[in-house]
User: Fold this.
Amino acid sequence: MKNKVKMGAIVCQLRVARNANMEKLQNGYLFPEIGMRQIMHMEKYPNAKIISLGIGDTTEPLPVFIASAMSKYSHQLSTKEGYQGYGAEQGNKELRKAIAATMYKDMGIRDTEVFISDGAQCDISRIQLLFGSNATVAVQDPTFPAYVDSSIIMGQTGEYMSHTGKYGGIEYMKCGPENMFFPDFAGVPRTDIIFFCSPNNPTGHAAAREQLEQLVEVATRNGSVIVYDSSYSDYISDESPTSIYEIPGAKEVAIEISSFSKLAGFTGIRLGWTVVPHELSYSNGFPVHKDFDRIVCTCFNGASNIAQRGGLACLSKEGRKATKNLIEVYKENARVLTDTFASMGLEVYGGTNSPYVWVYFPGRKSWDVFTEILEKTHIITVPGTGFGLGGEGFIRVSSFNTRECIQEACHRLQNFLG
Ligand code: PGU
Assistant:
């Protein structure tokens, strides 16, 4: 055993090798990195009033109706009659039914196909266990970084190409204003998995029906599985589909991951769900649903029963009304931000079907724009390249903040950048 002596104490160094896939992750996870920059900025300017329009974290208080449902249930847990321990690993039956009926009305999704989770992020990783390390992956570029990072941790990297900063097993599908934020599949080699997020984080683009029809058609032709992230579906204001299952044929090729985080301000409470249709099967005919059930039982053990009670309240008639009002606050914030950037003559995307505003600074590097905005206005944003090379020249601005802070941020932006 290798022993090191440090300050008089013996420090043991393991003889266990680091997971080689962890070594392939090139940077820290994007959002903690932004958090670090914020701390450094606070140290540099201790008196500055920093406004965070960076990480997408909800700020409005929970509707009383939803908070009371959870507190009432928690109190019941302190009684002999009301106490409950482990629940079903797949989730509370009533909640699974409510999700199928409310979020997938007329889409043919059964409650048994809905698995309750502790948030979309966690299921993005758990889903990877279904396909293993030999699977090839395609992502939109720019994309929410958890898809790429969880693929790398899983080892879905194919031939490692460090000099380009990219991996052979991962295809980056360029999605920008020039192609209506939808990949040109003619130029994309077949992959086993296609991660697709709509409304998209970071661009804010909600895919149109024809685009999703094309996506399902490509997956069907190639025998690929779509992992569709609909975490922001309640922000859709136009006719864009709120779920991949609005598209005929999707049940044979798609898994959908979603969340109560942005739908109801549950970022800290932690609740989400994943739909794995019974129709979905591997190349050998084995049902994917059976494996996901197995994974949930082995690696998860079910979501918090208090959080699930809150989820049920969110999906009641009163709860839906209250959470939609919350979303309107953020959407109005997004409108104010969009107008501000547009008034400076900048190209602005997103915002209408999403809490994120995606702003283009032609000829500039995203990190330089991020730094300039932070230095001049004390506002935290997210540099577009944090979401992939396709985000170069852009910054993502989040509308998750109080109206007062959004107005103050717009005032500063106009004064210092306008
Ligand atoms: N999927 C998408 C597309 C997201 O944007 C986020 C969070 C998640 C999943 C995670 O949802 P949970 O249900 O809360 O697990 N995106 C935020 C937070 C970033 C992070 O990774 O912490 C954002 O700012 O992009």
Remarks:
- The CA atoms of residues 198 and 206 lie 5 Å apart.
- The first strand starts at residue 3 and ends at 6.
- The chain has a mean pLDDT of 95.
- The radius of gyration is 22 Å.
